[in-house]
Design goal:
Bound molecules: calcium ion
Shape: globular
Distance between the termini: 15 Å
Largest sheet: 5 strands, parallel
Helix content: 40-55%
């Protein structure tokens, strides 16, 4: 299996060393950058598969780096933040980041996030290879966008229009954490607090129909205070 190349953007040397040592031990290739300007340069010249990006950089804000990279690339971006405030993560996700890690994090967490992104990369590249984009399959879940139907284990799911809309949005962004704001804006056209409350209700009913056990969901992952993500099933 050819391993992906990762760009590690982190000005904190011990944290950077922890990341690069972990990557090296697991046979990942990597390049490093210690500030935002270097990060943008490396991102364009090395064309990495995944970007690990610290938000608190000495020159420009990490959010700005995300915006700049997103002007030309959809490479998966995992934000690393010492700031435990959800607002920073939400801002980063809304700027185009795919996932986040909060410092301090374990080596296992780092590797788990990387595996999620590798599945996302595989999915993104199969999309661009001209696969049949009108049908989505993920594990036992299938969505026929043209027909407007979703199936689990071959059985059609009886979804309300809102549940179907939410499911399609998550499916089209498989592997990426979507914020409450992003989902409500796309489903209802606005991000009122009322809509965020409604989203929780619709998500609960959607999961009852979708998941084998709605108290331990496999397809839709909850990020408390932040949003939801459709996981890519193995195989
Ligand atoms: Ca930093």
């Amino acid at each position: 299996m050819s391993k992906v190349q990762i760009l590690v953007v982190e000005d904190d040397i011990p944290v950077r060393n922890l990341i690069t040592t972990t990557l090296k031990t697991h046979d990942y290739r990597y390049v490093v950058a210690g500030n935002g300007a270097e990060a943008i340069m490396q991102a364009s010249t090395c064309n990495p598969d995944v970007l690990f990006l610290d938000l608190g950089l000495p020159d420009i804000d990490g959010i700005e780096v995300i915006k700049r990279v997103r002007e030309w690339s959809n490479m998966p971006i995992i934000v690393i933040s010492a700031r435990s405030e959800d607002e920073d993560k939400i801002e980063a996700l809304d700027a185009g980041a795919d996932d986040y890690l909060t410092k301090p994090f374990s080596v296992e967490e780092l590797l788990a996030r990387l595996r999620v992104m590798q599945r996302r990369i595989a999915l993104l590249s199969s999309d661009t290879k001209g696969g049949d984009s009108s049908v989505y399959t993920n594990g036992q879940l299938k969505i026929d966008f043209a027909a407007g139907c979703a199936y689990m284990n071959g059985e059609e799911l009886k979804l309300t229009p809102i549940e179907y809309k939410i499911l399609c949005l998550l499916a089209k962004n498989t592997g990426k954490v979507l914020t409450h704001k992003y989902i409500t804006e796309n489903v209802w056209g606005s991000a009122w607090d009322n809509n965020v409350a409604s989203l929780r209700v619709f998500m609960a009913t959607l999961r009852k129909k979708l998941e084998v056990a709605s108290d331990s969901p496999q397809y839709i992952q909850t990020h408390i205070g932040i949003g939801y993500r459709m996981m890519k099933m193995e195989g």
